[in-house]
Amino acid sequence: MERFEHLPHPWIAARREQKPPQTTDEQVGFNGRLAASITRAVGTMWAVYIALAFQITWMALASLGVWLFGRDRTPSRSYSSSATSSSCC
Predict the structure, then answer these.
(1) Secondary structure (DSSP) of 56-72
(2) Percent helix, strand and coil across the chain, each to the nearest 5
(3) Of 46, 48, 28, 49, the residue nearest 37 (C-alpha)
(4) Residues with Cβ < 8 Å from 69, sequence gap 6 or more?
(5) Distance CA 56, CA 51 (A)
(6) Which of 24, 30, 33, 70 gives 20 to 30 Å between its CA and that of 85?
(7) From the DSSP assignment, how many helices (H) and strands (E) are in the chain?
(8) Domain map of the chain by residue range?
(9) What pLDDT, on a 0 to 100 scale, did the predictor assign at position 69?
(10) Is 36 buried (19+), middle (13-18) or exposed (0-12) by CB count in 10 A?
(11) Separation of alpha carbons 11 and 56, rounded Å
(12) What is the pLDDT of residue 14?
């Protein structure tokens, strides 16, 4: 004779029949699909590390003057002291 008889709740059997909800099952717009595809493609910390290393390298080289941004072909403007000291009114 058993003193305890385990009877599982009926909801447990009903929950086992259902799949857990997935975000792919939800209706999302274009932005949601685009964000999900980008996250699926580069959603790792390695992507963050690569982007961070690239940005730090870019800033360091620009600060040191290795990449000179003054090589463009636009004419440089030279301001004389008379042009900056004139008043308009």
Answers:
(1) HHHHHHHHHTSS-GGG-
(2) 60, 0, 40
(3) 28
(4) 62
(5) 9
(6) 70
(7) 4, 0
(8) 10-64
(9) 59
(10) middle
(11) 54
(12) 82
**Residue with structure tokens 């009926």?**
10
CA 52, CA 58: separation in Å to the nearest integer?
A: 10
Which pLDDT score is estimated for 81?
Answer: 53
The reported pLDDT for the residue numbered 73 is 64
Structure-token match 């042009």, residue found: 83
**At residue 7, what is the residue type?**
L
Q: Say which residue the tokens 């099952």 belong to.
A: 25
pLDDT tens, residue by residue, 4-49: 888 888 888 888 888 877 777 777 788 877 777 777 877 777 787 8
φ/ψ region of 30 (left if φ > 0, alpha if ψ in -120 to 50, else beta) reads alpha
